[in-house]
Amino acid sequence: MENTEKKAFIPSDFKNSQNARWCPGCGDHAILNVLHKAMAELGVPPHMTAVISGIGCSSRLPYYMNTYGMHTIHGRAAAIATGVKTANPELTVWQISGDGDGLAIGGNHFIHSVRRNVNINILILNNKIYGLTKGQYSPTSERGTVSKSSPYGTVEDPFIPAELCFGARGNFFARSFDMALDITKEVMVAAARHQGASVVEILQNCVIFNDGIHAYFADKEKRADHTIFLRHGEKMLFGKNKEKGLVQDGFGLKAVTVGEDGYTIDDVLVHDAHAKEIYLQQQLALMDGHDLPLALGVIRDYDTLVYDQEVQRQTDDIHQKKGFTSLRDMILRTHETWEIK
Predict the structure, then answer these.
(1) Angle at 296 between CA 294 and CA 301, to 5 degrees
(2) How many CA atoms lie within 13 A of 61 on its CB side?
(3) What gap in Å lies between CA 121 and CA 118, rounded to an integer?
(4) Which residues, in sequence order, are bridge partners of residue 174?
(5) Whole-number Å distance between alpha carbons of 182 and 295
(6) Cβ atoms within 10 Å, residue 234
(7) Each residue's pLDDT tens digit in the chain (341 positions)?
(8) Rounded to 10 degrees, what is the CA torsion of 223, 288, 26, 104?
(9) Is 215:281 a contact under the CB 8 Å cutoff?
(10) Within 13 Å and on the Cβ side, how many CA atoms surround 207?
(11) How far is CA 42 from the centre of its chain?
């Protein structure tokens, strides 16, 4: 059931009196502030909002919200968020996880909450390192990363959160980074308005253990050429003057300069976030900012059946057919009881 309460909210309505205890310069500060703003724009009252987290630096976030919140156990945020949403579908539920909490120990819960299409908003704050436990490599750390748990460099390839989401049959995926405040708010709002599991990867800097890990595309001088902001129905253009674009190149994509080598604006692809087929969306999500620009914004936003809504529909249907009004009533009517003498 949709919330029908109409009231204008401001960001401070979702902020409590606690001082955020993250390192100065941590990207979590910006993400928290943007989340307050996104919630105000959505207009869902604080008492109809729940923020669930696991363990990690990012998972402290519920302490700084004037909403319902649970700081749970390592890797179990998705499982608990699923339970909260299924038990009370009227709540808007946000899950806050880091790359370790969400994709390592919590990886199994992540893929199944996405597969089930539970109507929760999953924010993966990706700094490619374990920050709270002091600098071990994470499942998103690049091959060769030197860390406290890999002093000679990692010898494994990382997860790409978008690829994991698509592999789990995800229907919503978006990406931003901690310094792109407007984009981050836009994708958070879109995620909350999407019906079903929404995954937002927010690339975030850890100033202590992985400082500058996203500088290649986050730096202001490089950002325009190394990233592309996608909006549904708009041309896929990037560059400081929007002089570059993405075109189809066989079964792949190619970055070109409009007006050179025979390419015109008509050749540049138009973004379709609502397409059922994932092929082009997946190619966009896997671009890494080197040969092709890193994709930001809402990459996929497709509507299909939603888990908690289907559970409620099924429950209502069984109530109507069987006449059950409570668990005790169900047990008594089915006569599946016995006495121990």
Answers:
(1) 125
(2) 29
(3) 9
(4) 200, 298
(5) 15
(6) 12
(7) 445 455 799 999 999 999 999 999 999 999 999 999 999 999 999 999 999 999 999 999 999 999 999 999 999 999 999 999 999 999 999 999 999 999 999 999 999 999 999 999 999 999 999 999 999 999 999 999 999 999 999 999 999 999 999 999 999 999 999 999 999 999 999 999 999 999 999 999 999 999 999 999 899 999 999 999 999 999 999 999 999 999 999 999 999 999 999 999 999 999 999 999 999 999 999 999 999 999 999 999 999 999 999 999 998 898 888 887 777 777 777 766 677 87
(8) 170
(9) no
(10) 9
(11) 17
Residue type, 155: V
Place of tokens 């009231």: 7
Which residue matches tokens 């075109």? 247
What's the sign of the alpha-carbon dihedral 270, 273, 278, 281?
A: positive
Element (H, E) at 95: strand 92-98
74, 82, 135: which is closest to 104 by C-alpha?
Answer: 74
Find tokens 């397409």 and name the residue.
Answer: 275
Helix axes 181-193, 27-42, angle to 10 degrees: 50
Task: Look up residue 132 and give its amino acid.
Answer: L
d(CA 42, CA 91) in angstroms, rounded, equals 13
Place of tokens 């059922």: 276
Which pair of tokens denotes residue 104?
């390592």
With a CB cutoff of 8 Å and minimum separation 6, the contacts of 200 are 121, 122, 123, 124, 173, 174, 175, 176, 187, 188, 191
- For residues 228 and 294, what is the distance between their CA atoms, to the nearest angstrom? 6
